[in-house]
Amino acid sequence: MLDTIIKYLKSSGVYGWEVNDVKTNGWEFYFIRHELDQHRAKNVEHINVKVYQQSEDGGSIGFAIAEIAPTASERDIEKLVSGLAYRATLVENRPFTLTPPVEGNTSEGKASDIADISADFIRTMSELPETEGEDINSYEIFTSDVSHRLITSTGIDYTEHYPSSMIEVIVNARHGEHEIELYRSYYSGTCDASGLKRDLVRTMNYGRDRLIAKPTPVNGKINVLFSGENACQIYNYFSERMNAALVYRQMSDYEIGKPICEEFTGDRVTVKALRELANSSENHAFDAEGAVIRDVVMIEDGVAKQFLGGRMFSFYLGLENSFNPNNIEVTGGTRTEEELRVGRYLEAVEFSDFQVDEITGDIFGEIRLAYLHDGDQTTPVTGGSISGSMNDFVGSMLMSKNSAQYNSMKIPALTLFRNVTVTGAEN
Predict the structure, then answer these.
(1) Domains plus CATH for the chain?
(2) pLDDT tens digits, one per residue of 183-239
(3) Which residues contact 116 (CB under 8 A, 6 or more apart)?
(4) What H or E segment, with its residue span, contains residue 313?
């Protein structure tokens, strides 16, 4: 199949092309409570083709992308390549060069043992400390060995193998005649048994507290402590503003060598792009355009150091050896958990939706569950919302020394914003 696709790409007369061939060999398990309801194996392949066209005068380059089915006929392939070649002429971007190959062998990895990975997930779920009030309703496990091959017109021919897993869990909590369900999904490379168990126990507690939560009082401005996966949205803000596309489009005002805010009264973030992060499902050797991924410090102690991104915008900015990062690690916290948990504050743990706009810096979240801490008293609350702007929080935010990992992101376990607007739900 790949030989046929490449044959038509070479004869199409296009400026350049890329073929990403991803094969997934996986197992799936569906449990009701802890009883296996059904299971199946899967073996799928996705072939994505990207075609580049240069204008006759060389003043612009366009591109078009499409997926080709592994079962496509030769006629279908020829027609699709021809269509891509035409569509690419309808797009006009400033000229840029395509990613060249690097010296040496970038192909790496070996097939993952999905039987062992699946067994680890099943064993971890069976060891959860359930109670009469909080337990597991159902869960689905997906484990895969992924093979990714990239071939390009510039001479790249790379192959990598990596594990990719996902588990979906429904947690039940009951209090009197009332019952609630909480949904969770976790992505990882292999099974992070301790992390999965810790988060699901926490989720069962959240379900219990959600049933007895009171309406969020009108707080006006209050310190808010973020914990859990929602905090990833906060730190995505920093990595996205270091993206070459946003910088080139002037949607980010970060400048290399300059602080990311005018004044710091809190902790200063350090943001790193990592080639590998333990148990991440995104441990890739290269990105979709063939750029080799490596460890790079993007922001250091609150100062912008290195922009990263796709080939086109990186070329426009004159970036050498740039790439699209997959794993992100954020450090810079100076406080212990005890030092952050002082005074009166709201710890937000569950949102119906939580957003951080990487362009405007606006944050917003509808509270499903939070804990209002006031001295020795802690009250579960629900309803209302959180709002504000990262522009007001970047310089004063406080972070814990200890970290928590959520698949491809490793971030401070606790993040404190001061004087956040919290709309109450009390009548």
Answers:
(1) 2-208 (3.30.2290.10), 215-427 (no CATH)
(2) 999 999 999 999 999 999 999 999 999 999 999 997 789 999 999 999 999 999 999
(3) none
(4) helix 311-316
